Amino acid sequence: MAVTRTFSIIKPDATRRNLTGGVTKMLEEAGLRVVASKRIQMTKEQAEGFYAVHKERPFFNDLVSFMISGPVVVQALEGEDAVKRNRDVMGATNPADAAEGTIRKTYAESIEANSVHGSDSDENAAIEIAYFFKPEEIVG
Ligand code: IDP
């Protein structure tokens, strides 16, 4: 299977509870390698742009407010079939539906404050990585 990249965000509910290490450990144990990482405070404009695909959804404004409510850690991850591998370890969007052993089952507070973002396709992974990282910030 091919080694690919995906994009991850450790969301404000997780940074607030000092779970950056806990989440990253679960990503690494799932076979993903952190090839870029930075802790940032997203601006409203950045969050709106990142989630533009959801702008017609009823939860869009709340989601943007949540994502700028504290620092996040944006990461590029590398591994075999990285997008699926990451989605598997993240678990379902709603932690109530997430499987045992997943990040969201372990750490998420609610369907909104669900601790992590992960790209849903290789195409979106490339777009999302480029949204936050310059090529030289990624060291494989
Ligand atoms: P995903 O993060 O599992 O890919 P998406 O459907 O792409 O899920 O939703 C993006 C993010 O929007 C979710 O991770 C969550 O933070 C938030 N979200 C999704 N559905 C709801 C909802 O019904 N209420 C509040 N927030 C939601």
From TrEMBL:
The active site is at residue 117. Its cofactor is Mg(2+). The keyword Magnesium applies. SUPFAM superfamilies: Nucleoside diphosphate kinase, NDK. InterPro entries: NDK-like_dom, NDK-like_dom_sf, Nucleoside_diP_kinase. One of its GO terms (molecular function) is nucleoside diphosphate kinase activity. It comes from the Bacteria. It is found in: Cytoplasm. Residues 3-140 form the Nucleoside diphosphate kinase-like domain. Keywords: ATP-binding, Cytoplasm, Kinase, Magnesium, Metal-binding, Nucleotide metabolism, Nucleotide-binding, Phosphoprotein, Transferase. It is an enzyme of class 2 (transferase). Belongs to the NDK family. Homotetramer. This is Nucleoside diphosphate kinase. It comes from Novosphingobium beihaiensis.
